[in-house]
Amino acid sequence: MNSVSENTVPTALTIAGSDPSGGAGLQADLKTFSHYGIYGMTAITCLTAGNTQGVSEVNPIDPSFIRQQCQSVIQDIKPSVTKTGMLFSKETIVAVADDLATISCPIVVDPVMVTKRGDILLSKNAQNYYIEHLLQLSDVLTPNIPEAELLTKEQINNSDDMEQAAKRLLEMGSKSVVIKGGHQKESKNSNDLFFDGNEMIWLTSKRYPTQHTHGAGDAFSAAISALLAKGKSLRQAAEQAKQFIIHAIKSAPGLGKGQGPINFSL
Ligand code: PLP
Domain Pyridoxamine kinase/Phosphomethylpyrimidine kinase, which positions (predicted)? Predict the structure, then answer.
């Protein structure tokens, strides 16, 4: 992993989509960065019309303009860490990979594909572009279970399957992985799995009964990014980010008519 840069304050660039309701996407990333005292920057990949009830429309930004945004940031303020979120199209994945190849900082790839409610955030079959272009650039890959299944092309039914998937994702090129287990609704616990090729660690907490988890996956990856920017090890970043998410879900403000946002103001 590249070392973090020596800015006066730690900085983070998120290359992600906009959620106008403020709970997910780049808005969740920026709020999480601020929580950790990180100076956040954005390259916007697409605009969504979305809220706590779903995403009704996606308006993608031209990939060449996404690159222009990335370059204007990078040439001015060096990111201590870079995170990718919703990329939406194959063309954007390729363009972003080209930019990431020129960036010398830790890279966190959140392979955003579909919302908890089933709205599509990645075009059909574009997961193969993640496999070809982004996995080998990622220091940390943070899929949820459906995303890990699409990337590995294997079903995940239990914790053994999750461990196999983590190993497979490293074989496929990622340097470490945090598989977010929040989608296992039938389980009493919320079990996330960290693997860096050396240590495999379960991050376990009681499942808190709530519908207010909109953006929790984005914020988990953003918290890992922020903690890496602060110089934490991969393992520390994963463990501390998990604690942040537990508290942010427990104290969710209860906004909106659907799955409300978590609490970023801890
Ligand atoms: N909107 C945007 C722009 C996102 O990037 C994401 C997740 O990455 C979502 C919505 C999904 O939010 P959730 O599934 O947590 O409700």
Answer: 19-263
